[in-house]
Specification:
The protein is built from 10 helices and 16 strands. By secondary structure, the chain is of the alpha/beta class. Helix 1 packs parallel to helix 2.
Length: 284
């Protein structure tokens, strides 16, 4: 059981802390935000719900920047979420140059822990963290594409009048408009989707992908929680996550080992157009 540090106590960060607490597979969650008092109040709310959800996970909120850096020093996984907004404004995902500055400080305090970017708007940050800060691609990933894959599985299940849990698929590319779905490698109960659904239905499903992006904070939190747990424990499950690409991050199928490392999986055979599109996104 390990320590997870979540930077950002906005809607996504709070939902992730609650989700991890309810699943009770970590020892301690540290919820870090510049609005430390609000973060502490949110941590208390989640803690008070703990007995109802039978959770015994410790949840703390550091009081200042110095305490935040101490809190991250022994974290097994670090998550970047969304910071609490100013009054009257919504939470803002940690991204851009401010995100790079924060990552530089985080790596100064803890250079070992893998980093999960839980938001849907952090693709640029992932790519530039690798290019400018030298963070290995196995050490920083984005979990938002896994939420997108889950939403697409739900739509497919409706078409098949079945369960999303029975559907296996992977995605690649850049959401919302540059996503590639290898339908011939996706399946439900042993049959590939390109044999279960006609070409018109598959095209209609593909056309809906852009409307599934960005996922909402609770869907993002659920995806991030599963990626965090996989990084802590290892998992044979295939995830879809952002990895550093050429100037931006690219969604690819991933697996995680118990040492907190991500491994990009080989894609099934793609059409010439799909392969050309993907090759342009990946670093050379």
């Amino acid at each position: 059981m390990s320590v997870v540090a979540i930077f950002g106590a906005g809607e996504l960060g709070g939902a992730l802390a609650s989700k991890l607490g309810a699943r009770a597979r970590v020892r301690e969650i540290r919820l870090i935000d510049p609005a430390a008092g609000v973060a502490a109040g949110k941590a208390l709310d989640i803690l008070q719900a703990g007995p109802i959800e039978l959770s015994t996970v410790s949840l703390t909120a550091p009081a200042d920047d110095a305490a935040a850096l101490r809190a991250v020093a022994d974290a097994a996984v670090i998550v970047l979420a969304d910071q609490i907004g100013t009054p009257g404004k919504p939470p803002v995902e940690i991204q851009g140059e401010a995100g790079l500055t924060l990552l530089r400080r985080i790596r100064g305090a803890n250079a070992r822990a893998p980093i999960v970017c839980a938001g849907a708007q952090q693709a640029w940050l992932i790519a530039h963290a690798a290019a400018e800060l030298g963070i290995a691609g196995t050490q920083i990933v984005g979990s938002a594409p896994h939420a997108l894959a889950s939403a697409l599985r739900a739509l497919i299940a409706l078409e098949l009048n079945g369960s999303a849990h029975d559907i296996s698929l992977i995605l690649a590319g850049t959401p919302p408009d540059g996503i590639i779905v290898p339908w011939h490698a996706a399946s439900s109960q042993g049959s590939t989707l390109d044999t279960l659904l006609d070409a018109g239905t598959l095209r209609r499903l593909e056309s809906k992908i852009r409307y599934l992006w960005p996922p909402g904070p609770y869907a993002l939190a659920a995806a991030a929680a599963r990626v965090v747990e996989a990084l802590l424990e290892g998992s044979p499950r295939t995830f879809v996550g952002f990895v550093a690409g050429a100037g931006n991050a690219v969604a690819m199928p991933l697996r995680f080992d118990s040492l907190g490392r991500a491994r990009v999986l080989d894609l099934p055979a793609l059409s010439a157009m799909q392969r050309s599109t993907l090759d342009a996104l990946l670093p050379r």
